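User: Run a structure prediction on this.
Assistant: Running it now.
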Amino acid sequence: MEKLRDELPGNLLEILQDAAPVLDRRSRERLAAGIEALIDENRDLAVRAARAGLERDALLAAVGRQGIVYDAGGGVVAAGPGEEDRIARALLGRLDVSLGYPGGEPVPPGELPGHRALRGERLASCRYTIHDPGGEDLHAVVSASPIIMDGAVSGATVTWQDVTGEEQACRRLAEANTLLEGLFENLGDIVGVQRPDRTILRYNRAGYEMLGMTPEEVAGRKCYDLLGRTSPCTVCATELAVASRKREVVEKFVPELGRYLECRSSPILDEKGEVAFIVEQLYDITDRRRAEDELRESEATARALLNAPSEMIVLLDRDGRLLDTNEMTTRRFARSREDLIGRNILQFFAPDAAAVYAARLRDVVASGRPARFEDAWDGRLYDVVLYPAADEQGNVIRVAAVARDVTGKKRGEDALRRRTHDLNERVKELSILYEISRIIERRSEPSLNEVFREVVRVLPSGWEYPEDTVARITVHGHRFATERFAETPWRQVSPVVVRGETVGMVEVCYLHERPERDEGPFLAEERALLDIVAGRLGSMIERFQAWDSLEKSESQFREIMQQSFDMIYTCYNEGGIAYISPAVNRILGYTPDEIIGRRCRDFVVPGSLPAWEEGRTKIARGEPVEGLEIEFHRKDGSVACLELNESPIVRDRSVIGVHVVGRDITERKQNEQLRQHAFEQIERNIEQFAILGDHIRQPLQVILGMSELLDEQKATGRIREQVHRINSYITDLDRGWIESRQVREFLRRHELA
């Protein structure tokens, strides 16, 4: 039977016919019928197998046009559209073309889509980049599936779609979106997108900067809410654009921003023609509005400026016709402005003068350069300027004529020239005086000898003939002179006086004879200059002496403060204690370094704080405080009582600190307390003496009375004698008590108790 399986149906039938004689008729008929049915079934199977083979070949051909078919061993069964296709070569792993992931990383050979499908993986719409050194990069979407037969991978199919155009289109779209977003964000004007109900979707960067808000703070809010309002503007461009479905423009002043804005709202319609969005453009026209206002003001100002000068001002055309004029011209010609405008200015002059003016006007128009000249008219002298005004092409279209009456000026110029020389001399004198002042004042630690040498060097330049002038300064026998100094007959001298005593002199000499002036060859102003210089030198010497005295005083004062038995300190409102004398170590136990920079209040005992604050209040008012008793903590924890005398430090009419002198009165306060206790004890003793006398006298009187009842005279006398003796003792005590009270009253009167 095993051999029968490999036989064809026709051969099988022949074998059965050969075996037929051994079978009966019925068996042969049944066997023949079965064989016929078997042959028919095998024939149908062959047809179906042929059809399946054709379908397989068609599928493989179709797949091969945009894909690759592998057998189980990885061999390529079909590939299309052909090995010349770069995508196919890349998927097949050809070395001349590289397959990469979208990020640019290359795909290893073992990770090719076909190899992964042969391992049983399924890839759906994976993107790859194909790089061909000889052409542009391609982009493909690749899918791969294994072919499973009888539970095992018998092959694989890989298909792809070239999406290079789509990728490039997406990239261009992204670039366009980036460009549009960049343009939107970087527009100088404010652009926003909102819904028809004024809900803000977004603004560009200029909009957020104007509002001073972030996108998160703006999105979803109404436009008027961003300005702090509860309702829309009275005139709203967005409302008008929603109603008209076309762009609307509104100009308005926004007081919350303090700016004039031009609001342009442009609707974006949907497919139904309804307004979907509003694009709002805001232009800051504040400068334009202000420019318009300024233009109106400028015109008014120009008219005022035109009328304000005392000169005659007219505006002419190229031929000399009057276009405008100021009020001074109307008064000078005794005509109204309306009467003058339109007339030719040449008709107001004599023929000869008119011809000269016409020639000058033509020269200005032709050359484009202003002309200035002087002219006499009706006994007055005028300074006339013809100034051309050109258009954008440089052609002169107007000429402004300004005529100024300079009659008085001309008369004053002569007088001015006469004074110019004198003024120059005074300038020289002032310059030399300034230079000398600078020499004296410029040094922080000046030397008198250096000052004298520099002053004598610059002194000759202040005289009328500096090249022929020499000078010398003599102070306390020391001489400082310029080169070539020599005493000549042409000499000026001024003494240097310090605190009423002449200590030297300043000399100026001409080496050669000069014309006679106010004081020999010298001017009176030069005498004044010499006296001023000598006076400044005297003041400078006094100041140097004062500096020396001040330094000595400061040194002495510093030594006094350092050696003072009392504690002296300076405290500022800002910075705390700036200085404290060494006595603080003896009084409070702190070194000065431990105190500097701290506040005085930190050391005050809490019980003294009310008195301390009262003293601070007086100091803040600029009042001094005397005899303020304050208890301070010592470093060892004990308490010291100080009597403070305070003076406010005032600068620019404000109290900035306080100077304090503190005296340690701790022992004095303790002695006062002991003395007070002693006086209190004396008071108690005096009272006890008075009470004791009363208590003794009363029993004595009883004893004396009872003794009178006794019959024995001797015993009675003895008792009476002892009673009188005790009374004398008590009387002595009373006299001591009275004297004690008198002493107490004396102490009270003199504040000793």
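The radius of gyration is 63 Å.
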